[in-house]
Amino acid sequence: MKKNAILIGCSLFIFNFFASSSIRKDSCNLSDEQNPFIFINIARDQVMNKTPYIGVQTLSNVSPERITYKDIYAQAYMTLLTACGEIKEKNRIASLYREEDEEMEMILFPAQTLIASPAKEVIIQEAGKHTFTIINEAHLYPEHRVFIKSLLGDLFKIGYTHICFEDLRFDNDIIYTKQNCPDQKKGFYLQESNMAELVREALQTGYHIHSYDTHLQERDSIAASNLLNINNKYPDEKILVVCGFTHNNEMPEEKKVAGYLKQMGTDPLTINQTLFYEANHTEMYKKMITEYDITKPVIFMDNDWEPYSFNQSYNDLFVFTPPTQYRGENPDWLFHIDNRQEYDLNENIEEGIMEVYYQEEKCLPEIPVYTKIISDRKNADPIILPLYQHHNYTIKIYDLQYNLIKILSINDFDK
Q1: CA 304, CA 65: separation in Å to the nearest integer?
Q2: Is 370 exposed, middle or buried (0-12, 13-18, 19+ CB in 10 A)?
Q3: What is the pTM of this model?
Q4: Taking the CA of residue 106 as centre, how many other CA atoms within 13 Å lie in the half-sphere pointing to its CB?
Q5: What is the C-alpha to C-alpha distance for residues 290 and 378, in angstroms, rounded to an integer?
Q6: What distance in Å separates the CA atoms of residue 213 and residue 220, rounded to the nearest whole number?
Q7: How confident is residue 6, by pLDDT bands cut at 50, 70 and 90?
Q8: Bond into 386 cis (ω within 30)
Q9: Based on the number of CB atoms within 10 Å of its own CB, is 215 exposed (0-12), middle (13-18) or buried (19 or more)?
Q10: Measured between alpha carbons, how far is residue 1 from residues 24, 45, 213, 274 in Å?
Q11: Does pLDDT of 26 surpass 60?
C-alpha cells in the first residue's frame, strides 16, 4: 500500500470519526503544535462550520520546522484548501510534503506500444458486464470526483440505478431521492463543492443514493455485506460504488471491500484512479504523460484491446489522470471534463471569499457549487459556472473572516 494512501485514508477515518462530535467555533488554537489532533480539529471544525479559510489562515502561519507530525499537518492543510477551492495552492503544498513511494518507483515504463483510450469509453464498455462497479478516489483530489460525475449518465443508460458513497454516514435505507439536494450533515466531504456536484448529478440523473461504510473495526467486510444487502433488495439493477483509495483492491489477502465481495460470490469491476495521478509523480508517470500526450483521463490498452495492467493484479482498470493545468487559478479539469464556462462579474473586489450557489436549491445549510478566494493577484480571474438545468445563481461575497459583504445574482446564465 502506498504511503500517501495510508496517510490520507487515516486522516479521512479521523475526520469522519470526529464529525459527529460537537463543533468548537474557537478551534483555531495552536497551543500545542506537537499534537497532531490540533491540526485535525482545526480542519474538521472549520470545514463543518463552513469557514475553511479561517483554518487556512491559521495553518499557513505555522512554521514547518516546529511541527512533529508534518504528514497530518499537510493533510489538514490540504483538506482546508480543497474546501476553499484553492486547488493550485493545495497541489503546491502536496508537492512540498510528498514522500517517495517505493512501490510506484518499481512500476516500469511499458516495453510495448500501448493505445491510450479515453477512460470513459473503456469503463462504459466494461461496466455493462458487471453488477457492481467500484471506482476509487483520492479524497483531496476533486478531479477524481469530476471524472466520476462524467460517467453517471452513460452508466445509468446501461442499468446502473444505484450509487453508494463511502463518505456518507451509514443508513440502512436510501439516503437521497430525487427530491433532495446534498446535505452537509450526511458526510464530511460533502462540504467540498465537487463532491456535492457529484451527488447533485446523481440525483438529477435518477440514481438512488446509499451509504454503506460504517468505520467499525471490521470495516471492509461489513461494508461488503451492506453492499450485498442493497443488491439483494434490487436484484435486477446495477450498483456504482465510490470508495477511497485501496478499498476496491480485489486481492483476498488485503481484506478490502472488493476482495470480500469476490469471496461472497460476486465479481465487481474495479477501477483505480489513485495509482497514476499527480500525487504519484514518478518518472514513469511523467514519461507516460509526455510520450502519449495525455491531456484527459485515459486507460491504456494493449494491441489485443485488453486493458493493460502494468503488472498490477489487484484492479481491473487503471486510469491515467494528467497533472492539473490552470487557467489563471482555475483547474483545467473543470472545463474539459465538467463543461463549465467562465463568467466575469466585473466587480471591483480587492480581497474576500466568493461562494456561488444555485438559486433554485432550497436545502439548508447551502453547499456552494464554486468557491473562490479573491486577492489582488487573482482578482482578474473569472468565476466558472456549470451548464446545468439551473440557470440562476446567487453569489455571496464575504470578507476573510466570513462577514457577509455583498449578495449578487446571475440569471439565465446559459440560455
Answers
A1: 52
A2: buried
A3: 0.91
A4: 6
A5: 29
A6: 8
A7: very low
A8: no
A9: middle
A10: 34, 29, 20, 11
A11: no
Q: How confident is the model at residue 179 (pLDDT cuts 50, 70, 90)?
A: low
Can you read off the three cell numbers belonging to residue 326? 490552470
The residue ranges of DSSP E strands in 173-217, in sequence order, are 208-211
Which residue type is seen at 19?
Answer: A
What is the model's pLDDT at position 232?
96
Mean pLDDT value of segment 46-67: 90
- The answer to whether 73 and 67 have CB atoms below 8 angstroms apart is yes
Residues 6+ apart with CB under 8 A from 145: 137, 192, 194, 195, 197, 198
Exposed/middle/buried for residue 77 (C-beta within 10 Å: 0-12, 13-18, 19+): buried
Count of residues in the chain: 415
Which residue type sits at 228?
L
pLDDT of residue 175 exceeding 70: no
- Distance separating alpha carbons of residues 307 and 300, to the nearest angstrom: 6
How confident is the model over 183-205, as pLDDT tens digits?
777 888 888 999 999 999 999 99
Amino acid sitting at position 201: E
- Cα diameter, the chain: 61
DSSP H helical ranges for 276-348: 283-291, 333-336
* 133 within 8 A of 268, measured Cβ to Cβ: yes
